[in-house]
Amino acid sequence: MEENTIPSGADDKTKPQEIETQQAGDQESSEQVESKENEVQESASEQIPDKVDEPIEVEAVEKRNEISKEINISELSIDALVDLLSNVTTRDDWFKNHKQIQSINSVFEEKFQADLEINKQSFIKEGGNEIDFYFKPEYKKKFDQIGYDYREKRRNHYKSQEATQKVNLEKKKAIIEEIKNLINIEQNINTIYNSFRALQESWYNTGPIPRADNQNIWETYKHHVERFYDFLHLNRELRDLDFKHNYEEKLKIIEQAEALQQVPDIVRASRDLNTLHQLWKNDLGPVAKEHSEDLWNRFQEASRVIQSKRQTYQKDMVGAMKENLEKKETLLKEMKSLTESPLDTHKAWQNAINKYNKLREDFKTIGYVPAKESKATWQEFRDIGREFMRLKNVFYKEQKKEYNQNIDGKKALIEKSKAIVESETWESRVQEMKDLQKEWRGVGFVPRKLDNKLWDEFSEVQKIFFDRLKTGFQHLSSEQEAMQKEKLAQIDKLKTFTFSSDIKVLKEEYNNFWDTWKAISRLDTGNQEKINYSFSNALLAGVKKVELDKDAKNEVLINLNTLILQGDSKRLQQELQTARTNVSTLKAELTQLENNLAFFSNSSSENPLFKNVEKQIKSCQNKIDKATEDHIRLKQIRNSQEKSAKKAAENVEQDNEESSEEN
To answer: Which residues 6+ apart lie within 8 Å of 77 measured at CB?
Structure first.
């Protein structure tokens, strides 16, 4: 059975359909063509060159599959995995290796977690605190960078593909317009026909277009081609030429279909066969009546071989789905066992949560199961999850009561420590302070974030106490008290002062305050640091109240902050640590957003969710740039501070040497 009347051409990559649906299509019988031959006014005198399809690269595909099978990814070392990822993502066929890249990522993460755990345990055994542990070796950084480059290249590929499809759509619309205009051209019929064949060739050589427009543009093209044939009234010579061309092209299609029988990848073979049926149905017209049935039977026979292999493959796939069901049932039993075991400690629950999360992720990675079992399996998965979370919430609700008691206990120890420091007899209460340290270690669990805050407060009081012992601390002398009163008066004055909104005057005002403060003699180290901190905060607060535009205020505050930090090394160190933490946090957030963007790799860039994630990435990158600038500025202040201290030390040493020489 022959299909439509449209002459042959190159592959118009239209949407593949199932093989069984390809046997029906638009058809123009040889009798319809015969009825037109007497209406032709001029005969064709030029030959139309045939298009030669490129052979299917079966050997190349087989070779790539063999290479992939030779590599057992799970046996590779971490460095080998990094090199393999770099190789796979930079090869010419990188876009076809997404599943292999996912496998490499999975194996690498497993090995990295094992390496991290080893280093973590080693760090703890050597006396390190678990909360201080940080581990990100060079191979991890390199692996993450390769992954980032790959995701960027993949996103760019999809964007480029979408743009190309839109360009192809406009090209095809232009071709249709030119075919429409051929009907009104007053030229030799052979010239018109050659122009038509050239337009057909351009149509088939134009790449894919957006799927949403595919069917509509094809129907429009087909309609105007049929109109052109009606206008042209092909004579017998021209029709025979078209029959010959269609015959040769259909032979090529049949040979390609027969070659697919040797392709080991049956899914790929079926997909390629669908494409060949699409070509046969939509892109080629009829052949001479005596060849029509033989060609179609031969093509059908080649198709039946591929269909049979596909059916066998699908039977094997049913077996694979049954294995997946067994794996999921095993995981569900393990997950359920976690809800049946009594857990009465925070550590036991943390271990259970980690195990549950791993089982949960393993469950999600297992492939399809038989359709009739799928709903029940997922329902059981959700029920177990709800029960596990309920038990966890009950445990931690009870734990919260105990935590509150522990928090109150630690706060009481802090107050006792402060009372000792402030007492007149503090020097004789060393053992009492040490006993408070032992009591602190005996207090039960407190959530880490709050525990860190309480510990900082407790350890600061302890530090002040033992620093006093080391430095021979004494209460302020009358002279020191006078200086302290003078400094406090300066702070009070600053708190009530109203700064000018003129930037030049404003800078002079806060510089005057700063110079006056520096001119007052220093207290002992501990008291001086505290009162400096109060003065700096009061100065910053006063300047912040001034009404200026955003950019001007930022510039003033940066200049003032630089001035303050140059004279306060402790405050500078704190701001440096905060800046480093801020940069790290923002970079982690950016990595998460980029991973989220990978889920949209097959989506249009017009997708609102895709646009929103891109907007968030841009915003996050801007924040990283600003945070990095702040960090660099603070490091420059520290470097300047260190140089000044070094120079001062050298001057003192030089003065000492000169004094020695004089003696």
So the answer is: none
Give the integer Cα–Cα distance in Å for 37 and 44.
Answer: 12
Residue type, 650: E
In 3-state terms, what secondary structure has residue 502?
coil
d(CA 150, CA 88) in angstroms, rounded, equals 10
Using a 10 angstrom Cβ sphere, with 0-12 exposed, 13-18 middle and 19 or more buried, the burial of residue 473 is middle
Closest CA to 48 of 255, 192, 222: 192
Burial of 99 (0-12, 13-18, 19+ CB in 10 A): exposed
Q: What is the residue-wise DSSP string for 549-617?
A: -HHHHHHHHHHHHHHHHHT-HHHHHHHHHHHHHHHHHHHHHHHHHHHHHHTTTTS-TT-HHHHHHHHHH
pLDDT in tens, 46-81: 323 333 333 333 344 444 444 444 568 888 888 888
Q: What is the largest CA-CA distance in the chain?
A: 131
Q: How many Cβ atoms sit within 10 Å of the Cβ of residue 11? A: 18
Question: What's the alpha-carbon Rg for the chain, to the nearest Å?
Answer: 40
Whether the CB-CB separation of 332 and 363 falls below 8 Å is answered with: yes
- How many Å apart are CA 31 and CA 289, to the nearest integer? 9
Q: What is the DSSP letter of 283?
A: I
Kindly report the CA angle at 406 between 402 and 408, in degrees rounded to 5?
115
d(CA 133, CA 120): 7
pTM attached to this predicted model:
0.28
Q: How far apart are the first and last CA of the chain?
A: 120
Cβ(33)–Cβ(290) below 8 Å? no
Question: Is-contact 430 467, C-beta < 8 A?
Answer: no
CA 307 from centre of chain: 40
- The pair phi, psi for residue 342, each rounded to 5°, is -70, 125
Contact between 3 and 27 under an 8 Å Cβ cutoff? The reply is yes
Low-confidence ranges of the chain (pLDDT < 70): 1-71, 185-188, 232-239, 367, 471-478, 480-481, 521-528, 566-568, 598-606, 641, 644-645, 648-663
Q: Which of 546, 535, 471 is nearest to 503 (CA)?
A: 546
> Where are the alpha helices (H) located in 94-135, listed in sequence order?
98-125
Cα–Cα distance for residue pair 587/585, rounded to 1 Å: 5
Contacts of 204 (CB under 8 A, 6+ apart): 9, 10, 11, 12, 51, 283
| Token couple for 554 | 């930022």
The contacts of residue 407 (CB under 8 Å, 6+ apart) are: 446, 450, 454
**How far is the C-alpha of 543 from the C-alpha of 510, rounded, in Å?**
8
Q: What values do phi and psi take at 76, rounded to 5?
A: -75, 150
